[in-house]
Amino acid sequence: AAGVIQSPRHLIKEKRETATLKCYPIPRHDTVYWYQQGPGQDPQFLISFYEKMQSDKGSIPDRFSAQQFSDYHSELNMSSLELGDSALYFCASSAHSLGDEKLFFGSGTQLSVL
Amino acid sequence: DQQVKQNSPSLSVQEGRISILNCDYTNSMFDYFLWYKKYPAEGPTFLISISSIKDKNEDGRFTVFLNKSAKHLSLHIVPSQPGDSAVYFCAASDNTDKLIFGTGTRLQVFP
Question: Which among A83, B57, B77, B102 is least buried, having the fewest CB atoms inside 10 angstroms?
Answer without folding.
Answer: A83
